[in-house]
Amino acid sequence: MRIGMIGLGRMGANMTLRLLRGGHEIVAFDLNEANRKEAANHGATPAAELEELVGLLSPPRVTWVMVPAGQPTNDTIARLSELLSAGDVVVDGGNSNYQEGIAISQDLARKNIRFIDAGVSGGVWGLDNGYCMMVGGTKDAVAVVEPAFRTLAPEGGYAHVGPVGAGHFVKMIHNGIEYGLMQSYAEGFELMHAANEFDLDLHEIASIWRYGSVVRSWLLDLAERALAPGAGFEHVRGVVADSGEGRWTVEEAVNRAVPAPVITASLFARFASRQEESFAARINAALRNQFGGHALVTDETS
Question: Which of 6, 65, 148, 246 makes a 20 to 30 Å CA pair with 278?
């Protein structure tokens, strides 16, 4: 099938290449000319403008948006709504908020333009390993794009999970779970790192846990790679960003009165990782000094 891919960053570029390898035709657009040329080198048809991209597609046109979530995605889809026609399909493959996707689909529906929210997981490894595809939308819209979904996903890694909004909702929860798993591994390895009396080889432990252990996983595979000699772990700073999905997951847990302490704690741990100096810890230290006379560590004493 012929698809217009909008956004050729790390994810969009690799997905374009995987689709090309699968025999699909791709019209590729990115604001960066070098990215367009790179896609063209792999067989895509480059488009310098969204108008050109739409003009190179045939009804029902399929446009796949892979730009940063939020305003960039919303602005891109709003522009596409002015260029597309009834029956065409817009796929949002970014990490957008599912509620925004529902609102966007309602706006597009007024012009009879169909909308699919596709949760995509696989990261930079997806090109070779495939991407897990969690897709939300109407059956007729999904059927149009399904050949591409099946090309992008590994065997068993694609599902039409529900109506519009369901794809990004499931991906949001997926990423919340990811936060908790990562934090659990991080805390366990820190505990072993602190056990100086055993002189533990953390890379070796990560390696053996990958075979037969009940905690084996792909994330553990990646931990083993990160801890390998020469991988540069000693230069990594403990600053962990969050891109929104963890926050939205916690908000959903609160709104639906679902206890999610592990995911919530892992989100707060990411906040703490970005603090040069914890104000809360300073208050704690001051209170201990006030009620118990415990010594303070100040700029003068440190």
Answer: 246
Output the CA torsion sign for 127, 132, 138, 144: positive
The answer to whether residues 85 and 25 touch, using CB atoms and an 8 Å cutoff, is no
Rounded-to-integer distance, Cα 77 and Cα 56, Å: 17
pLDDT for the residue numbered 299: 80
Element (H, E) at 27: strand 25-29
Amino acid symbol at 178: E
Among the residues of the chain, which ranges form H helices?
Answer: 10-21, 33-41, 50-55, 71-83, 98-109, 126-129, 139-152, 166-194, 202-209, 218-227, 245-255, 261-273, 279-292
| Catalytic positions, written as ranges | 171, 178
The Cα–Cα gap between 2 and 10 comes to: 21
Q: Tokens at residue 285, please?
A: 């230290």
Q: Which of 204, 207, 202 is nearest to 186 (CA)?
A: 202
**How far is residue 151's CA from residue 23's CA, in Å, rounded to a whole number?**
9
Place of tokens 């010594």: 295
Low-confidence spans in the chain with pLDDT less than 70? 301-302
Q: What is the largest CA-CA distance in the chain?
A: 77
pTM greater than 0.90 (yes/no)? yes
Look at residue 302 in the predicted model and tell me its pLDDT: 53
Q: In a 3-state reduction of DSSP, which class is residue 193?
A: helix
* Long-range contacts of the stretch 220-226 (C-beta < 8 A, 24+): 220/185, 223/185, 223/189
- Give the per-residue pLDDT at 114: 98
**Phi-psi label, residue 156: left if phi above 0, alpha if psi -120 to 50, beta otherwise:** left
Residues with Cβ within 8 Å of 140's Cβ and at least 6 positions away in sequence, in order, are 114
CA distance linking residue 119 with residue 97, whole number of Å:
11
Residue 146 and residue 267: Cα distance in Å, rounded? 34
